[in-house]
Hints:
The chain is mainly α. Helices cover 56% and strands 8% of the residues.
Amino acid sequence: xxxxxxxxxxxxxxxxxxxxxxxxxxxxxxxxxxxxxxxxxxxxxxxxxxxxxxxxxxxxxxxxxxxxxxxxxxxxxxxxxxxxxxxxxxxxxxxxxxxxxxxxxxxxxxxxxxxxxx
Length: 118
């Protein structure tokens, strides 16, 4: 019998899956590849991916590049909607980091909030 995994942990694993799919976009990977990347059981990952698909965060590809339907395998990629949202989030995050770096390097005197208090 497998131990019960909390919803919070499942959500965290799904975040890892989305992050992985975002990082390899536009590449499409099999369930087994995602299971290896997250060090989780393939059936468990498949269930999480199907849940992500229902939430329109992942897209399942059922055919190979030649258009032949897979019999037992499934390939996955991040959905366009999730990719757009994630890209905007990453852009904002990078912009904030740049602004902080500019503050640090443009300041001739050390800022009190940047200096560690001893």
